Structures are given as structure tokens and as C-alpha cells.
Recover the amino acids of this structure.
């Protein structure tokens, strides 16, 4: 079954398309695009849409409403993303150690992430990469375009105990470390080919602690090993 009905609500035109008992409502938001909803039954929607217009074909509705739209079935692009929660963080010693830091990727791109980390010419880390130098700080690669100013890195300051992890602060450009230093500003100083990774010699201001202190903080991660 393929029918449609329409009504004017606050300058939006609602067209409902009934296919085999499912109702797909597309709302052409002028200048913006289409937002589509799917609801399970048709009766309530026909009531909600009113009966001021007789049902018409979807083709003529689209043609009337927006002559520039070619189809109501606008394709949707889905980006991968990694939105971390407390329990997603683990003891850093359960991650893969590369150079002086620990790396993981929760979206299946670990090999690619390690290859970038080990490449002397640098590169861009894949979405879903988690990098930690110490248990209390992490940077996580979000979806493309999440925050261009930080190359889509989200920075975290974490509380870690034997019970696990609590995210203390998170964000792109505002997160600071225990010394009050802004993560993004420091890491943005890395030469561009290194994608915000500082290491010892990528151009960042050095940390106020030496490699020996970093090693003992790494070894003292209080969280249980999985
Ligand atoms: C004073 C500048 C500075 C600040 C502020 C800073 N970092 Fe770093 N970070 C560094 C340097 C330098 C290194 C490399 C240290 C080393 O390898 O010995 C580093 C290393 C790291 C690493 C390992 C990968 C790498 O870049 O070498 C991560 C992950 C990291 N920092 C996250 C953070 C997070 C998260 C914050 C904020 C909570 C933060 N950093 C704040 C300078 C800074």
C-alpha cells in the first residue's frame, strides 16, 4: 500500500508515506534537508496529520513542496565514533605499549593505529584510538569533524582507583591536567604530521616530570587488570 497525506504545521510540510502498515514521515525542512521518522502504526498519524487534504501520491507531494528535491529518500552517511564512558577505560598496562605510551582502538583499527604510532613520518590516527601516557590522562580520537581544532581528539582527565575509572573532566579545548596545563594547547604544538602526539621531540613544551617518574606512575596504575 502506498498512500500519502499532508498538512501544514508551522510552515513545515509533513508528508506521510504508508508502506505495508509502516508509516514513514518525512519532514522537508526547507534549506536544510530531510528528517525521517518511522512509526509503527498508521492510524494515529493520519489523525495527527488532519484530514484537510485528500490523500495524494508521494510523487506529486514532493514535486509541489520542493521542486529542487529529487527524492524523499535522501541517503544517510553514518560515521564511526567512540564516545567513552567510565567503564570503557582500563588499566593502561592492559593496552599495547608503543614507544613510551599505551594505545588501543575500540573500533577494530588497532593495527592501523600502531602503524601510525610507529611511523617516523607520523600520520593521522584512525577513529576510536585511545592513547595514554599515564593512567590519569587520555586522548581519544572521535569521528571526523568532531572538533577540527584538535584534529578530533577528545582529552580526558581521569580519577583512577582500585574500583575503576571515573571521568573527572573531558572535552576538546578546555581539559587541563593536574598541573593546570591545557592538554590541547600543549599537544597542538606537536609538528602537524604527528597528529598532536608530543613524545620527546615533536615540538611540545616538555612535561615537568622525567621519564623515570612517568615509568613509576605507569606501573602504579591502581585499576584491576582485566
Ligand atoms: C606542558 C604541556 C603538556 C600538557 C599541558 C599536557 N601534555 Fe600530554 N604530553 C606532553 C608531552 C611533552 C608528552 C610526551 C612526554 C614523553 O613522551 O616523555 C605528552 C604525552 C602525552 C600522551 C602520550 C602521547 C604523546 O603525545 O606523546 C598523552 C596521551 C597525553 N600526553 C595526554 C595529555 C592529556 C589528556 C592532557 C591533559 C589532561 C595532557 N596530555 C596535557 C605535554 C603536555
Amino acid at each position: 500500500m502506498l498512500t500519502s497525506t499532508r498538512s501544514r504545521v508551522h510552515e513545515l510540510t509533513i508528508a506521510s508515506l504508508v508502506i505495508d502498515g509502516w508509516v514513514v514521515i518525512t519532514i522537508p525542512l526547507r534549506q536544510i534537508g530531510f528528517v525521517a521518522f518511522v512509526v509503527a502504526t498508521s492510524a494515529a498519524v493520519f489523525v495527527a496529520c488532519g484530514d484537510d487534504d485528500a490523500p495524494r501520491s508521494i510523487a506529486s507531494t514532493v514535486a509541489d513542496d520542493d521542486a529542487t528535491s529529487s527524492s524523499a529518500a535522501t541517503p544517510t552517511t553514518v560515521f564511526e565514533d567512540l564516545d567513552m564512558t567510565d567503564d570503557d577505560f582500563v588499566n593502561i598496562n592492559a593496552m599495547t605499549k608503543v614507544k613510551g605510551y599505551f594505545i588501543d582502538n575500540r573500533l577494530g583499527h588497532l593495527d592501523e593505529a600502531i602503524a601510525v604510532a610507529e611511523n617516523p613520518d607520523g600520520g593521522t590516527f584512525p577513529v576510536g584510538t585511545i592513547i595514554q601516557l599515564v593512567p590519569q590522562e587520555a586522548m581519544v580520537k572521535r569521528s571526523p569533524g568532531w572538533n577540527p581544532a584538535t584534529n578530533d581528539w577528545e582529552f580526558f582527565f581521569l580519577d583512577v582507583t582500585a574500583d575503576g575509572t571515573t571521568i573527572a573532566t573531558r572535552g576538546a579545548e578546555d581539559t587541563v591536567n593536574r598541573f593546570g596545563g591545557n592538554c590541547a594547547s600543549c599537544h597542538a604544538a606537536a609538528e602537524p604530521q604527528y597528529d598532536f602526539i608530543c613524545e620527546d621531540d615533536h615540538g611540545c613544551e616538555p612535561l615537568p616530570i622525567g621519564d623515570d617518574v612517568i615509568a613509576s606512575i605507569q606501573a602504579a596504575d591502581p585499576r584491576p587488570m582485566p
